[in-house]
Amino acid sequence: MEFEEFTAGENDSGRRLDRVLRIMLKDRAGEGSVNVFSALRKRLILVNGGKAEASAKVKCGDSIKIASFLLKKSPEDRNSYPNSPEEKAFPNTRHECYANFSLDAATIFRNDSILVINKPYGISVQPSFSSDTSLSQIVAEKFKEENSLSFTPAPLHRLDRFTTGALVFSLSIDGARVFSKMLQSGLVKKTYVAVVQGLMQEEFEWTDSIDDGIPKGAKAFHTVQVSRIPPGSNFQSSPSIAVTKALPLAHGRWNDREVTLARFEIPTGKKHQIRAQSAFHGFPLLGDRAYGGAVIEGREFFLHSIQIEFPSDNSLSLPPKIQAPLPKEFSNFLNSALINWNGQLII
What we know:
By secondary structure, the chain is of the alpha+beta class. The protein has 9 helices and 14 strands. The strands form 2 sheets. Strands 4, 5, 6, 7, 8, 9, 10, 11, 12, 13 and 14 form an 11-stranded mixed sheet that branches. The chain starts with a strand and ends in an 11-residue tail after the last helix.
């Protein structure tokens, strides 16, 4: 019987063998295609030349041999998901955006654990709809360590395809764990700016419930549903709670419509949170047709993740702030809409 041999790396060390094997086999043979426990029992998978228990902890330098036939990916039918209104409106945008994308040029911070890029307009973070190409794939192909079997660089949060700005990826398993823990603990502060319809004249803090309203695992584009929280409700522990803080920065006009350049902070992180809550409270993002915004010819909305802040004593050697400059198209729009600003955002 023929085997293929792999060597465990530092990012595999200390992980359960079955966990490492599932990730390896998912990448190479497809998710769920191999019963790891059965393969170990039948000695179709060997560790350091011998039989191993699924619960054993992998060590850096371990030799893992897998029967070659287990690594053959079976033909599979690709699911075809319906295109979103955004995909239908701009069918050629995706190809053009990828053709002009440079990961090196987009990088605004990098160390051994974390990569932060200034995400451009029109590129998906994860594979979606009719295309598998995505930022997660581009980053994984460039930074995946050859000596790591179970760790792949990956995005640590999401931005919509047409949202731009600071996007964080893990470059090590420690980076993924620490950043995710800081994010879940509310220690990472994310600030956005957007152009909304209407004259926003005061600061708001919106606390609502957001329900995405689709079965778990569905991948087709969908909007989310926002609803008010009944007075007196104990909403603090609700998983659907969404809190968005909005602050107007400047005002202008576009096609005889009043528009506002607003800053947003989101202590919670729900799908389409800024887009959905802003529209629910009377300020849809200009151009965001999915949530009631007026059409901008040739483009969707202007929403940009402009800054991420981290605790000063974080163990990943991250600076207190990482800022992502506005895209040229965003700045040009602000100037053309006669928004009274001097090029400096209050952050």
